[in-house]
Amino acid sequence: MSRIDYFHDPNAPQANSVVPSVTAVVRDESGNILLIHKTDNDLWALPGGGHDVGESVDQTVIRKVEEETGVAVVVEDIVGLYTDPQHVMAYDDGEVRQQFSICFHARPVGGTLRTSSESKEVRWVSPTDLDKLDIHPSMRLRIEHGLDGSRTAPYIG
Fold first, then answer.
1. CA-CA distances (angstroms) from residue 7 to 26, 62, 89, 154?
2. What pLDDT shows up at residue 1?
3. Model pTM?
4. Phi and psi at residue 96, in whole multiples of 5°?
5. How far, in Å, CA of 118 to CA of 114, rounded?
6. Residue 157 resides in a domain
7. Can you give the CATH number for the domain in which 139 is found?
8. Which of 155, 69, 57 is nearest to 110 (CA)?
9. Is residue 34 domain-resident?
10. How many domains would you assign to the chain?
11. The domain containing residue 55 runs over which residues?
12. Is residue 154 part of a domain?
């Protein structure tokens, strides 16, 4: 399913759903960040996705990172909470989802990089190379917050 992200766009469609979701800032021992090249919008992003009934939010992080990247992680702490009503995602099935995302720091503990149906490329990226990738502004904000160790977990609403 394809998707279009609208970020502070006056022409964005009206949201008709909210789905709690997670993303994870995962860094390797060299400080590189784990990113996926998404199949739904052709942008680079942190791994993550929707929270399922019956799981804790840290289980969601662990599941989504492994599903999308092949990397097993341990959740460490929260990067921030992102609920900007001016950020909506329109899917080709008619759903227009308002952003509701919790971003976490996670540490890799195993696994092997691989793609999935949601990721056409997966790689460890040096923070100095982020400007070379097409990253949505809202995702870039999470990455910047995740890389800034001096911050307390921000609420971006």
1. 24, 27, 9, 19
2. 64
3. 0.88
4. -125, 105
5. 11
6. no
7. 3.90.79.10
8. 69
9. yes
10. 1
11. 3-148
12. no
Whether 63 is in a domain gets the answer yes
The helix, strand and coil proportions of the chain, stated in percent and rounded to the nearest 5, come to 20, 45, 40
Q: How far is CA 94 from the centre of its chain?
A: 22
Render each residue's pLDDT in the chain as its tens digit; 157 residues. 688 889 899 999 999 999 899 999 999 999 999 999 999 889 999 999 999 999 999 999 999 999 999 999 999 999 999 988 998 989 899 999 898 999 999 999 999 999 999 899 999 999 999 999 999 998 999 999 999 865 555 555 4
**What length is written for the chain?**
157
d(CA 1, CA 92) in angstroms, rounded, equals 6
**Quick check: 22 and 49 in contact, CB under 8 A?**
yes
